[in-house]
TrEMBL record, chain A:
Record has Transmembrane as a keyword: yes
Cited Pfam families: Cyt_bd_oxida_II (PF02322)
Coiled-coil ranges per UniProt: none
Organism classification: Bacteria, Bacillati, Actinomycetota, Actinomycetes, Streptosporangiales
Protein name per UniProt: Cytochrome d ubiquinol oxidase subunit II
Stored InterPro entries: Cyt-d_oxidase_su2 (IPR003317)
UniProtKB/TrEMBL annotation, chain B:
Keyword line: Cell membrane, Electron transport, Heme, Iron, Membrane, Metal-binding, Transmembrane, Transmembrane helix, Transport
Membrane association type: Multi-pass membrane protein
Main location: membrane
Protein name: Cytochrome ubiquinol oxidase subunit I
GO terms, molecular function: electron transfer activity; heme binding; metal ion binding; oxidoreductase activity, acting on diphenols and related substances as donors, oxygen as acceptor
The family this protein is said to belong to: Belongs to the cytochrome ubiquinol oxidase subunit 1 family.
Organism of origin: Actinomadura litoris
GO cellular component: cytochrome complex; plasma membrane
Keyword Cell membrane on entry: yes
Compartments, record wording: Cell membrane
Length: 252, 421
C-alpha cells in the first residue's frame, strides 16, 4: 500500500510539474512572449483553458501527502515554511492576476494583473526550485529543513521557462511563435526532465516512517489508483477540446 | 510555543476558513441555480421560442457572478489546505492518519474533477455541443457538493471522533464507514447544502430587486430571476433549520451546558488534568446570532410565499425591493455565526476529547507565525475587497455586460468598454 501511495504521489507531482510547469513558464516569460497588452492577452489565452485543470494535480498531490503520509507534512511545510509560504503566495497572486485581468477594461488594471501573473509565476517556480533543491540535499544527508539545496536549487526555475517556451511554440499564433524559432525548447524533452525532478527529490525521503497507520493510507492510495484513469481521460478531453493554435483572446 | 503564536495561528485559521466559507456558500448554491437555468435554456432551445434567449442570458449573467465568486473560493481553499501543514503540524503528527483521509478524498475525487470541468465549461462555451456543455455544469455542481461533504467529514471527525484507535500516541483509522457516516458530518452537510441554497436565493433575489427597483429595462429577465431566488429561499428555509436542529442530538456536552457539561468537565479533568474545558462565551453568541438571522429570513420567506403566485407583483413594491436588497447579507451572517458556534464551541479541543488546540500548533516560533499571519491577512483583505467590488460591479451592470460565453474573437459587449478605473 505504501509503495502504491508513493507511486501515486510521484505520478501526481510529476503530472503537476509537466502540465502546470508549462503555464507557469509561459507566465514567467509573459513580457517577452507578448509585446503589448493585446498580445499578452493572447499569450494568456494560450494556457487559459488548461490552468485550472493543471493546478489540481498539485492539490491532489498535497491531498495524497495529507492522507497517506501525514508524517511528511511537517517536513515539507513546517520545516520548509519560508519556501512553502512563497510558493502559496505566488500561486494565489498569479491565479488572481489571471482571473481578474479580463474583468475590468483599463490599461492600468491589465498592466497590474500582468505584473501579478509574472511575479506570481516567478515566485511559484522559484519556490518549487528551492523545495526540490532542499529535498535532494536533505535526501543526500545534508540536513532537514532549509539547507544549502534551498539556495542551490533556485536555478532550476529556468526549467519552467524552458518548458513554457516549448508550450508557447505550438500554442501561440504562427506569427508570435515564429519569434521563438531560435530558442532550443522542446516541450517533450523539458516534460521528461520535469517529470524526473520529483522522483529525484523524493528518493531520499523516509517514506515508511511517514505513512499513515491504519486504513487512511489504503483509502487514499486506492482512491488515487481508481480515479487516475478517469482524471487522465478528463485531462485528455481538455487537451482535445482546445487543441491547435490559439487565435483569439479568451474569457481571462 | 508561546500563547501569542497560538492565538495568531487560531485567528489566521479563523480568517482563512471564514473567508473561504463566505465564497463557498454562494458557490454551492449558485452553481445549482446556474445549472438549473442552463438546463431550462438547453431544453427550451431545442423547441425554439422566445423563452430560449432569456434563460440562456440568465445562465451567462448569473454564471459570470458564479465564476468571479469561485475564483476567491478556490485560492482561499488552497491557502487553507496548506495552513494545516504550516501552522498545525501537531495535528498532522497525531491525528493526520485519520483526519487526512477525507481531505485526500476531497482533492482527488471531488475538487480535481470540479475544477477541470469548470475550466471546460468556462472556455468551452462555443466549442462544445450544448448538451455536453450542460452536462459539464452539472458535474461541477455535483462535485462541489461532494467536496463540501468530504470537508465536513474531516470537520465532523474533529467534533466527534469515531472509527479510530490511538496506538503509540498516533491515531489510526479503523472504521471507514463510521468516519464517512458520522452524524456531525452528514447532518452538517445537509445543513450547509441548504444554507448555500439560501445564500444563493437571497443573492439572486436581492440583485434582481436592485434592477427591478431601478426600472431600467430587462424586466422579464429580472422578474424570472427574482422568482428563481424566492422559490429557492422558500424551499430551503425549513430544511436548513431541521438539519441544523438535528445536530443537537450529537453535540458535545460542554457546548450544551447543564449537568452533562459538569460531568464532562469532571471526566476531562480526571483524564487530562485541570484546564478550562468550557467553551468561550463567543460560542453561545454565535448560536444566538445564527438563530436570529434565521428568524428574519423566515419572515422574508413567508412574505415571498405570499408574493410568488402573482408574477407581475414581483416587479412592483419599492419597500419589498429595498428589503430584498438589504437581506443579501443575512445568510452570510448566519453562516459565519454558525461556524463560530461550531468551532469555538469545541475549544479547548482541536479533536474533541483527543487533542487540545494548543498541542496541535506548529513550532514555527513567534516571528515566523507573525510574518505568515501578516502576509496572508493582507493578501486576503485585498482579495476579498477586489472580488466583492467586482461582484457588485457585475451585478449592477446587468446582463448587458457579461463576458462569459461571448464567442471567441467577438468584441466585448459595449458596457464593458466604458473605463471605470
Amino acid at each position: 500500500m505504501e509503495f502504491l501511495a508513493v507511486v501515486m504521489l510521484a505520478v501526481f507531482t510529476a503530472g503537476y510539474l509537466v502540465l502546470a510547469g508549462g503555464d507557469v513558464g509561459v507566465g514567467m516569460a509573459l513580457p517577452w512572449l507578448g509585446r503589448g497588452q493585446d498580445e499578452r492577452r493572447l499569450v494568456i489565452a494560450s494556457f487559459a483553458p488548461f490552468f485550472l485543470g493543471n493546478e489540481v494535480w498539485l492539490v491532489a498531490a498535497v491531498g495524497i501527502v495529507v492522507g497517506a503520509f501525514p508524517g511528511l507534512e511537517h517536513r515539507l511545510l513546517e520545516d520548509l515554511s519560508p519556501v512553502a509560504v512563497v510558493l502559496v503566495v505566488g500561486w494565489v497572486v498569479r491565479d488572481m492576476g489571471l482571473w481578474l485581468r479580463g474583468r475590468v477594461d483599463g490599461a492600468g488594471w491589465r498592466g497590474g494583473c500582468d505584473g501579478a501573473v509574472v511575479a506570481g509565476s516567478w515566485a511559484l517556480a522559484l519556490g518549487w526550485a528551492s523545495l526540490l533543491g532542499s529535498l535532494v540535499v536533505s535526501g543526500a544527508g545534508g540536513g532537514e529543513g532549509m539547507n544549502a539545496g534551498s539556495v542551490l536549487g533556485l536555478p532550476l526555475a529556468a526549467l519552467f521557462v524552458w518548458h513554457g517556451v516549448g508550450f508557447a511554440r505550438w500554442r501561440l499564433p504562427e506569427a508570435m511563435a515564429a519569434r521563438l524559432r531560435g530558442v532550443p525548447a522542446r516541450y517533450g524533452v523539458s516534460a521528461v526532465v520535469l517529470a524526473a525532478a520529483p522522483v529525484a527529490a523524493g528518493a531520499g525521503l523516509p517514506w515508511s516512517g511517514a505513512a499513515a497507520q491504519g486504513s487512511g493510507l489504503a483509502l487514499t492510495a486506492v482512491a488515487a489508483v481508481v480515479l487516475l484513469p478517469l482524471l487522465a481521460v478528463v485531462q485528455g478531453l481538455v487537451w482535445w477540446t482546445f487543441r491547435g493554435r490559439v487565435q483569439a483572446p479568451s474569457y481571462l | 510555543m508561546s500563547g501569542d503564536a497560538l492565538m495568531l495561528a487560531r485567528v489566521q485559521f479563523a480568517l482563512t476558513a471564514g473567508t473561504h466559507f463566505l465564497f463557498v456558500a454562494l458557490t454551492l448554491g449558485l452553481a445549482t441555480l446556474v445549472a438549473l437555468m442552463q438546463t431550462r435554456a438547453t431544453v427550451w432551445g431545442g423547441a425554439g421560442g422566445s423563452g430560449e434567449a432569456v434563460h440562456a442570458r440568465m445562465t451567462r449573467f448569473w454564471g459570470q457572478l458564479y465564476v468571479v465568486n469561485y475564483a476567491v473560493g478556490i485560492v482561499t481553499g488552497l491557502v487553507m489546505e496548506f495552513q494545516f501543514g504550516l501552522n498545525w503540524a501537531g495535528m498532522s503528527r497525531t491525528v493526520g492518519g485519520v483526519f487526512g483521509a477525507p481531505l485526500a478524498l476531497e482533492t482527488i475525487v471531488a475538487f480535481f474533477v470540479e475544477s477541470t470541468f469548470l475550466g471546460l465549461w468556462i472556455f468551452g462555451w462555443e466549442r462544445l455541443n450544448r448538451w455536453v456543455h450542460l452536462a459539464l455544469i452539472w458535474v461541477v455542481t455535483v462535485t462541489a457538493y461532494l467536496s463540501a461533504y468530504f470537508v465536513l467529514v474531516a470537520n465532523g471527525w474533529l467534533q466527534r471522533p469515531v472509527g479510530y484507535e490511538m496506538r503509540d500516541g498516533r491515531a489510526r483509522l479503523t472504521d471507514v464507514g463510521a468516519l464517512l457516516g458520522n452524524p456531525p458530518a452528514v447532518l452538517a452537510f445537509g445543513h450547509v447544502l441548504f444554507g448555500g441554497l439560501l445564500t444563493a436565493g437571497f443573492f439572486v433575489a436581492g440583485v434582481s430587486a436592485f434592477h427591478l427597483r431601478r426600472r431600467a429595462g430587462e424586466t422579464e429577465f429580472f422578474r424570472r430571476s427574482m422568482r428563481v431566488g424566492l422559490v429557492t429561499v422558500v424551499a430551503s428555509i425549513v430544511p436548513v433549520v431541521v438539519l441544523g436542529g438535528a445536530q443537537f442530538a450529537d453535540l458535545q456536552p460542554t457546548k450544551l451546558g447543564g449537568d452533562d457539561a459538569d460531568a464532562a468537565v469532571a471526566a476531562f479533568t480526571a483524564r487530562f488534568g485541570p484546564d478550562d474545558y468550557r467553551p468561550p462565551g463567543l460560542s453561545e453568541a454565535g448560536e444566538a446570532l445564527m438563530m436570529s438571522m434565521w428568524a428574519l429570513m423566515a419572515v422574508l420567506a413567508v412574505a415571498a410565499l405570499v408574493k410568488l403566485p402573482f408574477g407581475r407583483w414581483l416587479e412592483r413594491g419599492r419597500v419589498f425591493h429595498v428589503v430584498m436588497i438589504a437581506a443579501i447579507p443575512l445568510p452570510y451572517v448566519a453562516m459565519l455565526a454558525g461556524w463560530v458556534f461550531r468551532e469555538v464551541g469545541r475549544q479547548p479541543w482541536m479533536v474533541y476529547g483527543v487533542l487540545k488546540t494548543r498541542d496541535a500548533v506548529s513550532d514555527t516560533g513567534a516571528v515566523a507565525a507573525a510574518v505568515s499571519f501578516a502576509v496572508f491577512t493582507v493578501l486576503f483583505a485585498v482579495l476579498v475587497g477586489v472580488n466583492v467590488w467586482l461582484l457588485a460591479r457585475f451585478a449592477r451592470r446587468g446582463p448587458g455586460g457579461v463576458g462569459l460565453g461571448v464567442p471567441a474573437g467577438a468584441a466585448p459587449p459595449s458596457p464593458a468598454l466604458s473605463p471605470t478605473l
